[in-house]
Design a protein that fits this description.
644 residues, alpha/beta, Alkaline Phosphatase, subunit A, eight-stranded mixed β-sheet, 25 helices
Length: 644
């Protein structure tokens, strides 16, 4: 009989192999490999102890169960990241159930990456082939005791390693104790340690802490045009000193200190530009600038080249549509825990479009041409101030055909008469016609099938053509909207704003680059898009400053002259003199000076910085604090605390 080897060697291979695959295909970085391996050793030893509970046959069955469970979980995390640019958190359990409605999308992504599935299955395949070479017999009590002691020793030793460079913003220490960043934690510790921390934080709660490192002044590209003119700010009078003195909760107190010491954004030449006008805001499913074409989507082309033209705007993916919606309507950053709290706690979003404009006498309406309870929207719409909200299931089904996929054109035509006479109004549309999967079939995408003749001769792959076909429906909906507003005599008095909820993430990066006018990467530039602010009477104004989804709300509030405190929103008015920055779910960022991703900063061509290291450190600190503020503003219902 051939010599057998101890089961611990197989278990070591299983864990280390899966962690390395995660490094390659999820974090796309080898940083943190030492801590990943170090923190994996206690897991390997624990699995070894488990695999010695029974006799030979029982231990073999248990090993198969461990292998299948681990492969499934690691593979699941790969596909979750593929879809949402983040790893799964158990905070998302209540949200993730919605994804089951789109199993065809999931299967499509799996088929596109079947070779990676085979790589994940390798340990199971090897176990099946070589199981006779593995010794599944129960080990001696001596080795069990030694393994247990070794597990404790290595565990304690690994904790001491956390104190190395602990002052850095994303140090191992901060990620372990102070910061809840899914991707940064996986990058630093591996998927196993991230999962353990995630479960612990979900079960027992977790308080993110604001960094105590000062945020140095970050340079802006240019000084105000008229330095002699007195500058006023978007802020209201809040007695922070009194609130701080009477607050016992340390987390809330630190937030109050932060708000107090944050400089508000300046009012500017565009403040109140659209005061008193109507606002129609669209969160467009899957919309990205790659869909804009003068012939294929002429209305989108018109709206992206007239009015305000933002040349460096990003729509970062944060857990699909609900993350894009949260960014655009609250001006805050949506982690999975934040989105969970938003739906569970139903906090007051005082500066949400409905609430902010209702106080000015506006009629606030929300519409969605899919299930009205999707992503708990029946709750979140109320937090934003849209008490009048209609979707499929509470009225929309009486106006349009709500079978998959509903038409954006039908929704616009059916609902415009409901509010066009209730001026001034703010109307919020969440569209769905641009949804994946991008294929020509009635069960997968009836909208793509509907518009197939308009794209069939284009020199692109079928998936790309199907995507463009869905965006034609959005284009026609906008055309119909403008026509309807003109017929009602209110086009001049109405502003149309639009952002995509996220890029079409079921397309591969190669497919996206087929129709992109430059080569995009999968981390940052894949998120570059358009932000439309258009009025038929407004002149074209180009804006080069970097902006993103969280800047949408404060920019609109400033343009409509809404009184608000810019210190309480982490996004900033793009038209102010605040430095521009776009923040992504893995804590990469783009500023007016350059791009930070994979732990490296690339200075933008033509820009200069005196000390790049200090600049990157200050920006990382700023980004970290904006994540923390966003989480705690929702968790502690800070708008109700400060404003009501």
């Amino acid at each position: 009989m051939k010599k057998q080897f101890n089961i611990i060697f197989y278990l070591s291979f299983l864990v280390i192999y899966l962690e390395i695959l995660t490094k390659i295909f999820v974090t796309k970085s080898v940083s943190g490999i030492f801590l990943t391996l170090l923190f994996s050793i206690p897991l390997i030893l624990i699995l070894y102890l488990l695999a010695n509970i029974f006799k030979r046959k029982g231990n073999m069955i248990l090993t198969y169960m461990i292998t299948i469970t681990f492969i499934f979980y690691y593979c699941f995390q790969f596909f979750f990241h593929k879809l949402f640019s983040n790893v799964f958190s158990f905070n998302t359990l209540g949200l993730a159930s919605n994804a089951l409605d789109f199993t065809n999308i999931i299967f499509d992504v799996i088929l596109k990456n079947i070779w990676i599935v085979l790589l994940y299955l390798l340990p199971l395949i090897l176990l099946i082939i070589f199981h006779k070479r593995i010794n599944f017999e129960r080990t001696s009590l001596k080795w069990i005791i030694v393994s247990f002691i070794l597990c404790l020793v290595i565990w304690i030793s690994s904790l001491f390693c956390l104190f190395i460079n602990k002052e850095n913003t994303y140090s191992a220490y901060n990620l372990y104790y102070n910061i809840n960043s899914e991707m940064k934690t996986v990058e630093t510790f591996g998927l196993y340690t991230y999962t353990r921390l995630d479960i612990k934080r979900v079960l027992f709660g977790f308080e993110e802490k604001l960094s105590t490192i000062d945020e140095p002044d970050i340079p802006t590209e240019e000084d105000p045009k008229d330095p002699i003119e007195e500058i006023t700010y978007n802020e209201i009078e809040i007695d922070f000193d009194s609130l701080i003195a009477n607050e016992s909760n340390e987390t809330i107190k630190s937030m109050l200190e932060y708000f107090k010491n944050t400089e508000a954004t300046n009012k500017n030449e565009y403040t109140g530009m659209f005061k008193g006008k109507n606002l129609i805001f669209l969160l467009a499913e899957g919309f990205n600038m790659i869909a804009v074409d003068p012939e294929l989507t002429p209305t989108l082309y018109k709206l992206t080249h007239e009015g305000f033209v933002f040349n460096n705007f990003y729509s970062p993916v944060f857990l699909s549509t609900t993350g894009g919606e949260f960014q655009a309507t609250t001006g805050l950053i949506p982690t999975q825990s934040v989105l969970s709290d938003w739906k569970k706690l139903e906090p007051t979003i005082s500066y949400g479009l409905g609430n902010a404009f209702s106080k000015l006498g506006y009629t606030a309406n929300g519409y969605h041409n899919w299930t009205y309870t999707y992503y708990s929207r029946q709750k979140t719409m109320e937090t934003l101030g849209f008490n009048s909200y209609m979707g499929c299931g509470n009225g929309m089904e009486d106006l349009i055909n709500c079978s998959w996929l509903p038409s954006d054109v039908d929704m616009i035509n059916a609902t415009l008469p409901l509010f066009q006479d209730s001026t001034p109004f703010v109307t919020y549309y969440v569209t769905v016609s641009g949804h994946a999967p991008y294929a020509y079939n009635s069960t997968g995408n009836s909208i793509a099938l509907k518009n197939i003749d308009l794209v069939k001769d284009l020199p692109y792959s079928n998936n790309v053509k199907a995507y463009l076909a869905t965006q034609i429906e959005l284009d026609r909906a906008l055309e119909s909207l403008i026509s309807g507003l003109e017929d009602a005599g209110i086009l001049e008095d109405t502003v149309i704003a639009l952002v995509g909820d996220h890029y079409p993430y079921t397309l591969t990066i190669d497919e996206i680059n087929e129709i992109s006018d430059y080569d995009r990467d999968e981390i940052v530039e894949v998120n570059r898009s358009n932000f439309i602010i258009w009025n038929s009477e407004a002149e074209t104004i180009e804006v080069d400053k970097v902006g993103s989804q969280i800047d949408v709300l404060p920019t609109l509030l400033n343009l409509f002259g809404v009184e608000y405190d810019s210190r309480l929103i982490v996004g900033k008015d793009i038209l102010s003199d605040a430095p521009g920055i776009a923040i992504f779910s893995n804590r990469s960022w783009v500023s007016d000076y350059g791009t930070y991703k994979n732990g490296k900063f690339t200075l933008k061509e033509g820009m200069e910085l005196d000390n790049i290291e200090d600049y990157v450190s200050s920006m990382n600190n700023l980004v970290s604090n904006r994540f923390t503020l966003s989480a705690n503003i929702i968790k502690y219902n800070m708008y109700d605390y400060l404003l009501n």
